[in-house]
Amino acid sequence: MKKTILHPNHVNLGATMVPFGGWDMPLHYGSQLREHLVVREDCGAFDVSHMGIFDLTGPGVDDLLRLLLANDVAKIPQIGQGQYTVMLNERGHCVDDLIAYRLGEAFFSLVVNAGTLEKDLAWIRIHAAAYGVEVNWRKDMAMIALQGPQVAKRLQHCLLGELEDRIVALKPFHILVADGWRVARTGYTGEDGFEIMVDADRAVALWDGLMRAGIAPIGLGARDTLRLEAGLNLYGQDMDEQTNPLESGLGWLVAWEPKTRDFIGRRMLETHHGQATNRQRHGLILRDKGVLRNHQEVFKDGRRMGEITSGGYSPSLQKGIALARLEPGLRVGDTCEVMVRGRGLVAEVVRPPFVAGRKGG
Amino acid sequence: MSEDTEIPTDLRYTPDHEWVRQENGSLTVGITAFAASQLGDVVFVELPAPGTKVTAKQPFGVVESVKSVSDLFAPVSGQVTQINAALVESPETVNDAPYTQGWMIQIQPDDPQAINTLLDAQGYRAQLHHH
């Protein structure tokens, strides 16, 4: 089992550790509910060093990424801009979702999921050679996310010195690179926040400083309920290599123009584009008390419409909520039935997010 | 960890982490501090209606935490006489006070001697150490 550089810190904080994507990661540090609410009301710190950071350099890197990614990096022409995007296979199905940052001339960095890291690396390298692009997995860098409405006031604890003002001024999905720090205004909670990438030594000092300042450590458990409330997909549950982005609520990520850009998966995706038969991603809120879970089946008037891809309990709403991939025909405001232990419980169809995010991604 | 492993000596236990308290022939049932800690934050408890017949070692209800769903197993056979309705509004009580306010059901056992088949605190503790 792989361990991040902060693993001993989590153990010392009394975290309950669990395996996640091949890594031994903190599930919670006592109470997942409390951690969730801290991020919604104040600010919390996450160790996300298990995620992959790939640096891509070479003159053909723009062309490579315009082939590999469904969104178009030509839409982020300035150094310091980032873009949420999805990488597809030839069938138009999702290899991974990721953020691409333009860090310099002929220089991009991709932040990918932990569970798909090695698959992604192999897939990118297959295509990179032909474009003269070198791919460097930055195992030497750790990543800490700071998330919550009070995050800007907590940056003083981050040892960033005079960079602080420039970081507070960052727009969503923009990144600052200076003195070996990479600080991006993004996250996975629906709140304002930053993802801070830096070498291992400084990451440990940063984490210790945050803990001394009383900023709550947040485990993967709350990370999951926070992203679910924010209506954000989780790779491997809400999207995978059996589904395309159009049926995962990610159609907005696909840059169809210019038509001449023949990105991988485009031709298969075009056969589904705008089709009324496409399955759709919806949000569900349980009217009755209880919790929704992955793979529970959804029915409308006795007809099976599909299943929940991510279900859980919303600490903010104190209700069961879920993302579901369903046959066409359901609209926001409709009700449906979710089969929970043999009984059909009434749920309402909503448009995610379930909790209005304040800022950021 | 001490509160997670609190095992009162005046209660009896099942291998499925339920506790049982005997009072005037009636049995009160809940889940142990260890079980509550393993589940994480409890957010929903589903209990049978009073009057329901329960069977030893068979599920009588469900407890859902933020991370998982688990069956509740009847320690002995009998009839449910009362349920802790307060858990509907405040399921977190199961984490906060598993042996007191976090109780779940009361059972009138078919066999008054059935409680003697259950583990005592020492037996339950020994079983935890086998995990």
Largest sheet of chain B: 6 strands, antiparallel
Reading the helices and strands of chain B in chain order gives EEEHEEEEEHHEH
Main-sheet strand order of chain A equals: 10-11-12-9-3-13
CATH superfamily of the domain at 7-50 and 139-229 in chain A: Probable tRNA modification gtpase trme, domain 1
How many strands, which pairing sense, and closed or not: the largest β-sheet of chain A? 6 strands, mixed
Q: Taking Cα atoms only, what radius of gyration of chain A do you get, to the nearest Å?
A: 20 Å
Identify low-pLDDT runs of chain A.
none
The percent range for helix content of chain A is 10-25%
Number of domains of chain B: 1
Assembly category: heterodimer
User: What is the approximate shape of chain A?
Assistant: globular
Number of helices of chain B: 4
Give the overall shape of chain B, derived from the CA principal axes.
Answer: globular
Look at the helices and sheets of chain B and give the structural class: alpha+beta
Number of beta strands of chain B: 9
- From N to C, what is the helix and strand string of chain A? HEEHEEHEEEHEEHHEEEHEHHEEEEEE
CATH architectural label of the domain at 7-50 and 139-229 in chain A: 2-Layer Sandwich
Name the descriptors.
A: 361 residues; alpha+beta; Elongation Factor Tu (Ef-tu), domain 3; six-stranded mixed sheet; 33% strand; globular; B: OB fold (Dihydrolipoamide Acetyltransferase, E2P); six-stranded antiparallel sheet; three-stranded antiparallel sheet; 4 helices
Question: What's a quick, concise take on this entry?
Answer:
Chain A is α+β, with helices and mostly antiparallel strands. Chain A contains 9 helices and 19 strands.
